[in-house]
Design goal:
CATH topology: NADH Oxidase
Order of helices and strands: HHEHHEHHHEHEH
Largest sheet: 4 strands, antiparallel
Strand content: 5-15%
Helix content: 40-55%
Structural class: alpha+beta
CATH class: Alpha Beta
Distance between the termini: 22 Å
Oligomer: single chain
Number of helices: 9
Bound molecules: flavin mononucleotide
Radius of gyration: 19 Å
């Protein structure tokens, strides 16, 4: 057992009171997003898109579209995580795989057939459901990456994402997943109140 890793995993908590003067550098943002992007996704489609806002005037505008939740205004920045369903399109998957060398040109026909069959038999796999799953895993990784750099965050859905997309002039097709304000904690988070494994798991041996 790796006690350090366990302590780290246990220590994540939602932080809503952050220092408005804290600064997270562009280099840190780049590294945090790189780690977040190591998340798994169906067919390695990586359908996430992230708007990073580090501008207090813009954060104040987003705050008015997020039920005046103060963390949005005070944060060192806000990650807005979206999903782009075009990442699941077969042409896109093929182009990416040919580009990164995980598919040889000779295997393209077979790969197309495989994905065609997959989507026909499991329609959820290129739907909004899949976006929420793939980008949800990305967002969880992002929360831990933020923590690994000594910052804290809170995942949020309490926001008018359509209004925020309009304000930031983002593509209408992007599916909103989570808003994640991040920064330096001023006040500790809430106590962990959780069900015990016996309350939510079934063990088959
Ligand atoms: C999908 C989702 C939406 C959430 N939306 C909000 C939100 O709008 N505002 C907020 O303050 N916290 C929000 N939270 C944070 C939860 O309240 C918090 O994760 C939960 O109470 C457990 O506490 P912990 O994160 O400190 O362990 C959200 C969490 C998730 C996963």
């Amino acid at each position: 057992m790796n006690d350090t890793a366990i302590d780290f995993l246990k220590s994540r908590v939602s932080i809503r009171d952050v220092d408005p003067d804290a600064v997270v550098t562009a280099a840190e943002i780049e590294q945090i997003l790189t780690i977040a992007g190591s998340a798994p996704s169906g067919n390695n489609s990586q359908p996430w898109k992230v708007a990073v806002v580090q501008n207090k005037d813009m954060q104040a505008e987003i705050y008015t579209r997020a039920y005046q939740q103060l963390q949005v205004k005070n944060a060192a920045g806000v990650f807005l995580v979206f999903g782009d369903r075009s990442a699941y399109e077969i042409d896109h998957l093929v182009a990416e795989k040919l580009k990164n060398g995980t598919l040889a040109p000779a295997g393209e026909g077979m790969f197309r057939k495989k994905i065609d069959f997959f989507y026909a038999s499991s329609p959820a796999e290129n739907s909004v459901e899949a976006i929420m799953l793939d980008c949800g895993l990305f967002a969880m990784n992002l929360l831990y990456a933020i923590k690994a750099f000594g910052y804290d965050a809170v995942p949020m859905r309490g926001a008018d994402f359509d209004a925020i997309k309009k304000y930031l002039e983002l593509s209408e097709s992007w599916q909103p997943v989570l808003m994640i304000p991040f920064g330096k904690a001023r006040t500790a988070g809430n106590e962990k109140i959780r069900k015990k494994p016996a309350e939510f798991s079934l063990l088959f041996k």
